[in-house]
Specification:
Largest sheet: 4 strands, antiparallel
Mean pLDDT: 82
Distance between the termini: 28 Å
Helix content: 55-70%
Number of strands: 4
Radius of gyration: 36 Å
Strand content: 5-15%
Structural class: alpha+beta
Oligomer: single chain
Strand order of the largest sheet: 1-2-3-4
Length: 476
């Protein structure tokens, strides 16, 4: 009878397998990745972007990034998620092995004047025969999820390093702009004093005095705004490094120049960049996990075979447990064939297929985002470099004009309106130079982040994320 059941189960499995789904286990794109970037720039040859922040030659920046990559709460959360994913992978791997449990019991029964004891020890074993690969697909899904978690952790670290660098550049830029505003304020206050003296001498009217005072107050109004920005960015950097908001106030108080990168980043080809982008790799692993779950859902519609057995010892005394007559053993083979579930298994399969389509769409979106970020960073870098060059030329002329106007005003050769306009232009262009210089540094940070941030997938990624002490997967 059992042989007939097995035969019917195998026949049913063959029929079900005809309608099974074998999804592609890799991500795909509906478009072609370009062979090169539309924007180019001079390069120094292939440059390793690992620890890219060291090329800014700012020890404090390097220290902040190193500390953030260790202490930031987002990093610690991603590390915990990776540990969880690896543990779940080991849970899935355990389903491929037989399970063995042991039990022991002792009892004392009393019926009237009659008292008896009973002792029992036993072993139970069971093994699900993964004929159609459902459990193996579960392991593949968990393995891909663990790889995706590792890539997500790398993406958090890459994004965090870039965020620290951008905030640090913003802080140094605000400090530079504050110094510029304060220096110009001193110059304007001297002009205001001269104008006041000339008013007392009857050489100018109160109109010139009020104009000078208005310009001075406008410049002075920039100081608290920049001081607020410096404090807020300092708070942000403290939190990014896992510290209270005011922890770095003293460390960051010393004014230093905005860090500038030495040389240019070497550009990789678009396809190579996508391999170096941890977020793209994470999305790719999610597609692999989704494909494995489709296989798992498909296998759930097929017959299930199990082998089980038990070995026990029963006796009325402890000494009798070693008697061969007390041994009880059993072996059981079972077959479970889905007959009617109101379409639940088929619906679950469709749900997993839709999830795989969604994962593949998210992968394509990640690729498009990566390509766009590189192109945008290249365009911004080229534009800000040209803008900085023009602004530096403009500042040189504005500084000379402001100096000449003040000298000629003291000699009565130009009116006061000329002095005000040249001072206003000098402050504006000098501030714009500081902003543009910081923008170029920030563009370098965004470019290296778009190129992958120095992260490289480890060799043998598919297996390197499994715990070394985890059980090896038996051959199917």
């Amino acid at each position: 009878m059992f042989i007939r059941l097995v035969f019917l189960g195998v026949c049913s499995a063959a029929l079900c397998a005809c309608g099974s789904v074998a999804p592609a286990g890799h991500a795909s794109l509906d478009f072609e990745v370009p062979a090169s970037w539309s924007q180019t720039q001079p390069t120094e040859g292939q440059v390793n972007l690992v620890n890219w922040w060291q090329r800014f030659d700012d020890p404090l920046l390097s220290r902040l990034i190193t500390q953030a990559r260790v202490s930031n709460t987002s990093v610690r959360g991603a590390e915990a998620a990776l540990k969880q994913a690896r543990a779940l992978r080991d849970v899935a791997d355990a389903s491929l092995w037989p399970s063995v449990s042991s039990s022991a019991s002792a009892g004392r029964n009393r019926n009237g004047d009659y008292t008896s004891n009973s002792f029992q020890v036993g072993l139970d074993a069971s093994w699900e025969m993964d004929i159609f690969g459902g459990n193996r697909a579960s392991v593949r899904a968990a393995d891909a999820s663990a790889q995706a978690s590792a890539a997500t952790l790398a993406d958090v670290q890459v994004s965090l390093a870039a965020e620290v660098a951008l905030d640090y550049i913003s802080l140094r830029s605000a400090q530079e702009r504050l110094s510029i505003a304060q220096a110009n304020l001193i110059s304007q206050q001297e002009t205001l004093q001269i104008t006041d003296w000339r008013l007392q001498a009857g050489l100018v009217t109160s109109l010139e005095l009020e104009q000078a005072r208005a310009l001075t107050e406008q410049t002075a109004a920039q100081v608290p705004t920049l001081q607020t920005t410096i404090a807020q960015v300092s708070h942000a950097l403290s939190v990014l490094t896992g510290q209270p908001p005011v922890a770095l106030a003293t460390t960051l108080a010393a004014v230093v120049a905005v860090p500038q990168v030495s040389g240019d980043w070497a550009l990789t080809f678009p396809a190579e960049t996508l391999r170096q982008r941890s977020d793209v790799r994470a999305a790719e692993f999610q597609v692999s996990a989704a494909a494995a779950r489709v296989t798992q859902a498909d296998a759930a519609r097929l017959p299930n075979f199990k082998l089980g057995g038990s070995l026990g010892l029963n006796a009325l005394t402890l000494g009798a447990l070693t008697d061969g007559a007390s041994v009880a053993a059993s072996v059981l083979a079972s077959l479970s064939v889905p007959v009617f579930d109101a379409g639940a298994a088929q619906a679950q399969l469709r749900a997993q297929q839709a999830a795989m389509d969604q994962a593949n769409t998210e992968y394509q979106a990640a690729v498009l985002t990566a390509l766009t970020e590189v192109e945008d960073a290249l365009v911004a870098l080229q534009g800000d470099r040209n803008r900085l060059l023009r602004l530096q030329n403009a500042y040189q002329s504005a500084d000379i004009a402001a100096t000449l106007a003040r000298q000629r005003y003291g000699s009565g050769l130009v009116d006061f309106q000329t002095v005000l306009e040249t001072q206003r232009t000098r402050l504006s262009t000098q501030d714009s130079v500081a902003v543009a210089r910081a923008a170029v540094s920030a563009d370098h940070v965004r470019l290296v982040k778009a190129l992958g941030g120095g992260w490289m997938p480890a060799a043998g990624t598919a297996t390197s994320l499994v715990n070394p002490d985890s059980p090896r997967t038996p051959a199917p």
